[in-house]
Amino acid sequence: MTALVLAVLAAWPDPGSLHVLEAPKPAKKKLRVYIDAGHGAKDNHGNTGCLCQRECDVTLLTADRLYEALEKTGAFELKRSRTGDAEPSYPKRLAEAEAWKADAIISVHTDARGEAYAWVPPDAGQTCYRNEEVPGFAVLWSPDGEKKVIAARERLGRAVSRRLSEIGLLAYDGVDYGGLYDADAVDGGFVDIRGPKTRVYFLHASKVPTIIIETHHALDPREVQRWTEPQTHAAFASAVAAALADWQTAP
């Protein structure tokens, strides 16, 4: 086992170490936040994880829990991009968010990184793929568009990255992102640098400040297990709520 892997395992925080931040107080003007469950469009299921789970199913659960937790704070007006079996296209989601006059779009995803190897999880009955060497969250945004929107994306992305680290989640180091994303000044933050034909549509086409949160590495059984824990979802939602409040009050 490499020294890098040993260091990662030693640094891996216990699920119980994640902590929930204090809920922000409602502002005079509530932010309108559009919560997107990544993928789930027709014929777009996203990645397949180490337990053969589909990304679109995981993100729907995460987005629903995030919605419920943010709603309880009373600090936001909220709308979801998809519920149940709905399969809205990405253009339809952006159009809906813009028509609703969203202040921000938070799109939740999982990531699949590195060179994976085959294995058969207990009771799975099928071959899946795993990789434990590149754990962590990543927050993505686009440098394309109007300067005001770019600046807002950057501030939101950095606020979320800081708060996710604060609750105890590991930030991905970007080792497999070469040519796709540039690391930002804040750990876990990345800027889309792909060419015009390959850049992430949902990030660059949006007129609303939009970020993607890769909540965890879907090929890493430790991270997948962590995201079955209610404490993880509670801490994640508190970090997003705190980051949105930071973003709203930032100069």
Structure description:
- With 251 residues, the chain is of the alpha/beta class.
- It has one domain (34-249): Zn-dependent exopeptidases (Aminopeptidase), CATH 3.40.630.
- Helices cover 35% and strands 18% of the residues.
- It has seven helices and nine strands, in the order H-E-H-E-H-E-E-E-E-H-E-E-H-E-H-H.
- It has a seven-stranded mixed beta sheet with strand order 2-1-3-9-6-8-7.
- The termini are far apart.
- Residues 1-11 have low confidence and may be disordered.
What is the topological layout?
Layout: H1 3-11, E1 31-37, H2 55-73, E2 76-80, H3 90-99, E3 104-111, E4 117-119, E5 128-130, E6 138-141, H4 147-166, E7 181-183, E8 189-192, H5 201-204, E9 210-217, H6 221-226, H7 230-249
Count of discrete structural domains = 1
CATH superfamily: Zn-dependent exopeptidases
CATH class: Alpha Beta
Report how far the terminal alpha carbons are from each other: 47 Å
- CATH-level-2 architecture: 3-Layer(aba) Sandwich
Helix fraction? Answer: 25-40%
Care to give the gist of this entry?
This protein is of the alpha/beta class and 251 residues long.
List keywords for this structure.
alpha/beta; two-stranded antiparallel ribbon; 251 residues; 35% helix; globular; seven-stranded mixed β-sheet; Aminopeptidase
